[in-house]
Amino acid sequence: MSNIYDASRDPRLLNRRVSNAEKTFARTKVTETTVEETKVVESKTPEATDTAPKTVAAYKNSNSNREQASGAPQNKHRKSIQQLQDRTKDLLARIASQEADNASLQKTKAATAAKLRNAHTTLTTTSTSLTSLTVSYAKRLEEKNRLISDNADLELTNSDFRNTIAAQLRTISENETQIRDLQKENRDLMDRLGMLEREMAALKPRVEQLDAEDRTRMRQPRGDQPPQWRSARSTYTGRGGGYRSQYENTRERGNLARAREEDRGSLRTRSRVGGYDRNNANRPPRSASPREGGDGGK
Question: Polar residues: which segments have biased composition (predicted)?
Answer without folding.
Answer: 61-73
